[in-house]
Write a sequence for this structure.
């Protein structure tokens, strides 16, 4: 084959000085800068580029835009491979690698094409009818088979090596579509000083002006567009976004747009391939043009059968002749324009077949014009060879341009449930119902299908919008352009009895399928779509919907508007999952929070664990330790024997100030806070509104009107939000103010019998740490290390004599080092969250496992903390009888009868002698640990009437993990139950 | 007398980087004090006490303390005072607590936030990739302040000059915030 044998000698908007090489199915071809993959393939005579979805019939390039249903290819290879890319919008670049898809064997000899022979059995709904029985076959045979044969392209199944980004843009006016209407509106708005964004999915702005031979203001349309783009590019207030598809219209003038940044380049060079923009607009103008629709006729799916407007695009924009003997089949005046343009470019037009018995709108020399006829069949397996007409005539032709009229691109007007309205004069749906907030529609998208009217409509719309925004308008120019003939008739399909006529090329839906759906009761357009798959998949029925509706309307004897239409949802065209994810992949999936001593911990062998967004030290391994248990056991034992230090910064800290701060706390906590003395800390419990336990922590009173609340790590943000809600909405009259200080203070638990001695070396004189001066639950503001401000709380989670000391975060890393240094003489060790957890279980403290959203204060053994003397959030509902049944569960401890047995969290309790089933379920184990202090496994759990079952032996059962051991119900306070140590 | 002393460590180690047309620097000199107005106060007394020129609207800021500080209005009942004195923020907070007794509740926020200055001709292009706020000068003038989120992180942004912004985000996630900004910048450079 000669290189670019179908490339015309002259014309087109391609750069003939820049020749590009590309491969399709392994064969090398040439094209030019400015080509799409589709135009380059056609230039090289490759019209047969794919196989159809269901019947695996040969398919060719059908359109020249995003509506393409046939020419779906896989671009690039390896991990970069992307399936289902429309060749009609894939910009050609040097080194592009593409392959056809959906065939077994080569494109030419697809083994799956035998499916076409079984077509009579594969009509609409055949899945539902065929795969009914035997039932057992569904999962093992039918589903795998269907999955294997369904779909089009294939994913590489490798990690996507490309990167993607997101972004935010703002404008007064977003113009969607940079065709003649969009550019006219942008000129008006831009010259008036409005902040304008004009976006177009094409890589060259101008829309149909680049594909037609129109003139505007005395110059060729594409040159007018070039000039307009140049003028707009020079304006600081206008942003031109080519290669950008506005794919969705959302609430409040927000739009989603996908910009293809490097898809047209061989390499991304590490830069984002695509950007997903969120565009905030005050107003929007949809100037997305119109999409041509085909006419369905027997065997209308052969390669070489194309949309007439697309044929014009290939000839005028790309200087490509899609065929050597072209015919035109039309139901409107616009089809004749194709014949005329082809002739002007020297392409042979053999016939124009117009279904109307009307005079030709243009005169064509040497072309057979046939009126009042239609096509009844075509021939040519892998490329069109001839067409057969209703008058019996057969015409040899290798390209048939089909003109069925134009549909305004109303898609984005539907995204907020706008329902298109039928316009009989143009035989198409136009935007109707409620449009997205702030949106107007102009040009062909609004049904103004001719050039001059469209330009004026758009400029006028821009003026209206600017007036609406209160901006001074610079009057737009008047346009000299033609209003081309566009008269059409409602001829949707050729009625056929035997041969198949395709309505939806992408989903292999024929006229017969639509009729069958109707016969079988799927008579609503929505049902038709789901049953037949009409209008589904990547093209979303851009070329098929109206014909499908028309045929359904015929079946029902209704008009098209009576039949209705499906409406469109985002996205307008496919958006890659990678673009939706943006940067949120792998380590960047979410932010990390580091504790102030993270660097110290990292340098000292910490293993980290994610707790929410935090990375916390889980344990600090030492040489010779064989596993995490060794490290954790050592950390517990050394803390209990001397002193251990743990970074507890992650606990939420909320600064609460105001004259009514104490009263506020009294409302949010179950227990009393009104009389908490300054310099004291108190444990507090919060309930949800429904009476379930919500969160707990300690709150310290630093001043008469100043408290510092701590929350659990997990609930830090939620509690703050809840308190803000309470402050602003429940008790707005209280003088109370909240601010989070979680990140502001590095806080360390210093626990163990030597904790006081250690802190004595750090705390500045004359602060007295003795139990008399600073007893259990005391708090103070002080200085450490020679003047660094600090806060000290004498509270204990471990059950040991313990303190929590806080310094401003920037001192946190240094403070950890100082504490360790000061503790050297006591053998101080750092401990992580595992040891922290073990010690709290040994002490019987409830944590997240126990405050799990199902338990009440009474269940937790904290019923006494719900004050009878005052009200608080959740109190009333916590007193419902249903919340306090006689056999209610209670938090207790569990000790294995055989101390060699390991308990398992999540196990259920069964009374000894009862069968192990849910009917006999007595409760569940919420937390377990190996207690190095006791030398065996211990657990906390909820069991019915737990408080009165001390000493009872129950079965601890976990059938899923094969656990079935016996345990004794004991006090949850395994370690120092009297609390003497922490008070010491 | 204790034998130990503590040194301040900037959250990002004093990060400073010049990219193509964008600079990014950690600001570790700012003391930040939150001022909450008691019920019924409109901020006039605070503004007078801090010698600010006017009561800034929510989303705006003004100089105060003879030009040594900036008072940012974060909410109807909340200001954020920024002063170049990180080492003495605690004392400053204590002083203000007394000075503003009855007219504002103060909380030292210095260590809650990491601050980064981003500037240069490509700043707006870089911020476009991460900041949902409209930063056009017509919508976000010099001195404007906004609370927003960037890559899931809460951020306070304020405009210093036409092409320079100061960003505050939670100090515990300073590393992630820096990474998000660096990525935004790297994604727009050639």
């Amino acid at each position: 084959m000669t290189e670019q044998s179908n490339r015309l000698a002259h014309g087109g908007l391609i750069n003939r000085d820049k020749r590009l090489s590309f491969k399709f199915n392994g064969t090398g071809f040439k094209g030019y800068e400015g080509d799409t993959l589709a135009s380059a393939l056609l230039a090289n005579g490759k019209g047969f580029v794919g196989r159809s979805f269901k019947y695996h019939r040969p398919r060719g390039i059908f359109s020249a835009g995003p509506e393409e249903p046939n020419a779906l290819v896989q671009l690039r290879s390896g991990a970069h491979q992307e399936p289902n890319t429309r060749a009609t919008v894939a910009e050609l670049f040097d080194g592009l690698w593409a392959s056809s898809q959906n065939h077994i064997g080569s494109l030419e000899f697809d083994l799956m094409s035998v499916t076409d022979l079984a077509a009579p059995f594969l009509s609409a709904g055949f899945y539902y009818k065929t795969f009914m029985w035997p039932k057992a076959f569904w999962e093992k045979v039918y589903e795998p088979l269907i999955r294997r044969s369904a779909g089009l392209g294939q994913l590489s199944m490798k990690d996507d090596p490309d990167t993607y980004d997101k972004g935010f843009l703002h404008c007064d006016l977003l113009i969607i579509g940079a065709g003649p209407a969009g550019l006219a509106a942008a000129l008006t708005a831009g010259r008036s000083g409005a902040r304008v964004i004009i976006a177009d999915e094409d890589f060259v702005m101008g829309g149909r002006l680049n594909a037609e031979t129109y003139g505007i203001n005395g110059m060729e349309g594409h040159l007018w567009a070039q000039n307009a783009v140049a003028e707009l590019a020079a304006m600081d207030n206008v942003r031109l976004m080519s290669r950008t598809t506005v794919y969705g219209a959302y609430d409040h003038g927000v739009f989603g747009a996908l910009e293809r940044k490097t898809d047209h380049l061989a390499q991304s060079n590490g830069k984002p391939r695509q950007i997903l923009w969120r565009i905030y607009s005050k107003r929007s103008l949809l100037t997305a043009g119109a999409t041509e629709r085909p006419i369905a006729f027997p065997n209308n799916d052969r390669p070489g059968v194309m949309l007439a407007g697309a044929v014009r695009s290939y000839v005028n924009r790309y200087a490509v002749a899609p065929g050597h003997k072209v015919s035109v089949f039309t139901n409107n005046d616009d089809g004749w324009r194709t014949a005329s343009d082809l002739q002007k470019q020297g392409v042979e037009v053999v016939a124009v077949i117009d279904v109307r018995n009307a005079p030709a709108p243009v005169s064509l020399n040497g072309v057979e014009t046939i009126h009042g006829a239609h096509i009844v069949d075509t021939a040519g397996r892998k490329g069109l060879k001839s067409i057969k007409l209703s008058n019996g005539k057969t015409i040899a032709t290798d390209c048939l341009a089909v003109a069925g009229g134009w549909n305004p691109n109303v898609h984005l007007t539907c995204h907020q449930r706008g329902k298109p309205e039928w316009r009989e004069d143009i035989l198409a749906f136009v935007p109707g119902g409620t449009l997205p907030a702030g949106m107007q529609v102009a040009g062909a998208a609004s049904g103004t299908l001719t050039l001059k009217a469209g330009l004026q409509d758009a400029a006028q719309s821009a003026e209206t919008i600017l007036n609406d925004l209160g901006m001074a308008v610079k009057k737009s120019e008047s346009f000299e352009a033609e209003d081309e003939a566009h008269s059409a008739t409602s001829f949707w399909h050729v009625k056929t009895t035997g041969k198949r006529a395709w309505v939806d090329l992408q989903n292999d839906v024929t006229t017969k399928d639509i009729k069958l759906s109707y016969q079988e009761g799927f008579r609503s357009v929505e049902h038709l779509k789901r049953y037949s798959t009409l209008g589904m998949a990547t093209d979303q029925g851009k070329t098929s919907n109206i014909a499908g509706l028309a045929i359904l309307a015929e079946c029902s004897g209704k008009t098209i508007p009576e039949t209705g239409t499906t409406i469109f949802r985002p996205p307008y065209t496919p958006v890659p999952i990678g673009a939706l994810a943006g940067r949120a992949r792998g380590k960047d999936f979410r932010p990390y929070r580091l504790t102030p001593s993270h660097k110290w911990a990292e340098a000292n062998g910490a293993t980290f664990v994610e707790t929410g967004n935090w990375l916390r030290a889980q344990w600090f391994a030492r040489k010779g330790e064989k596993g995490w248990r060794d490290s954790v056991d050592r950390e517990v034992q050394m803390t209990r024997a001397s002193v251990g230090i743990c970074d507890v910064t992650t606990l939420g800290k909320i600064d609460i100030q105001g004259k009514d701060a104490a009263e506020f706390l009294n409302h949010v906590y179950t227990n009393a806070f009104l009389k908490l003395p300054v310099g004291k800390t108190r444990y507090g419990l919060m309930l949800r509104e429904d009476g379930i336990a919500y969160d707990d922590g300690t709150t310290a009173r630093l001043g008469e009107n100043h408290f510092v609340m701590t929350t659990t790590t997990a609930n830090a943000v939620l509690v703050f939000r809840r308190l803000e809600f309470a402050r602003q909405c429940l008790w707005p009259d209280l003088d109370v103010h909240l601010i989070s200080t979680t990140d502001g203070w590095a806080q360390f638990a210093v626990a163990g019998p030597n904790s006081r001695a250690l802190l004595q070396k750090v705390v500045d004189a004359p602060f007295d740490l003795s139990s008399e001066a600073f007893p259990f639950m005391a708090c103070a503001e002080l200085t450490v290390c020679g003047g660094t401000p600090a806060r000290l709380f004498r509270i204990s989670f471990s059950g040991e004599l313990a303190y929590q000391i806080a310094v401003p975060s920037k001192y946190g890393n240094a403070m950890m080092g100082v504490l360790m240094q000061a503790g050297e003489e006591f053998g101080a060790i750092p401990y992580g969250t595992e040891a922290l957890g073990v010690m709290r279980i040994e002490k019987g403290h409830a944590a997240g496992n126990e405050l799990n959203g199902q338990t009440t204060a009474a269940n937790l053994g904290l019923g006494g903390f719900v004050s009878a003397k005052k009200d608080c959030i959740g109190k009333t509902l916590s007193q419902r009888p249903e919340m306090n049944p006689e056999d209610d569960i209670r938090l207790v401890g569990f000790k294995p009868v055989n101390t060699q047995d390991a308990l398992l969290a999540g196990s259920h309790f069964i009374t000894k002698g009862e069968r192990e089933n849910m009917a006999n379920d007595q409760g569940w184990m919420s937390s377990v640990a190996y207690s190095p202090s006791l030398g065996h496994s211990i657990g906390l759990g909820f069991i019915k009437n737990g408080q009165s079952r001390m000493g009872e032996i129950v079965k601890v059962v976990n059938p899923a993990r094969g656990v079935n051991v016996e345990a004794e119900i004991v006090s949850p306070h395994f370690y120092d139950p009297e609390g003497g140590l922490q008070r010491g | 007398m204790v034998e130990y002393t503590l040194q301040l460590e900037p959250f990002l180690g004093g990060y400073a980087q010049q990219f193509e047309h964008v600079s990014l620097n950690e600001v570790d000199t700012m003391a930040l004090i939150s001022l909450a107005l008691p019920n019924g106060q409109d901020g006039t007394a605070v503004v007078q006490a801090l010698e600010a020129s006017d009561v800034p609207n929510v989303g705006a800021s003004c100089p105060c303390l003879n030009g040594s500080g900036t008072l940012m209005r974060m909410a109807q009942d909340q200001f954020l005072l920024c002063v170049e004195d990180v080492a003495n923020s605690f004392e400053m907070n204590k002083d203000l607590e007394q000075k503003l007794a009855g007219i504002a509740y103060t909380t030292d926020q210095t260590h809650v936030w990491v601050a980064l200055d981003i500037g240069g001709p490509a700043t707006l292009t870089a911020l476009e990739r991460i900041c949902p706020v409209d930063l056009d000068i017509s919508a976000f003038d010099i001195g404007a302040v906004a609370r927003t989120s960037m890559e899931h992180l809460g951020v306070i942004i304020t405009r210093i000059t036409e092409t320079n912004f100061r960003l505050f985000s939670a100090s515990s996630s300073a590393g992630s915030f820096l990474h998000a900004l660096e990525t935004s910048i790297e994604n727009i450079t050639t």
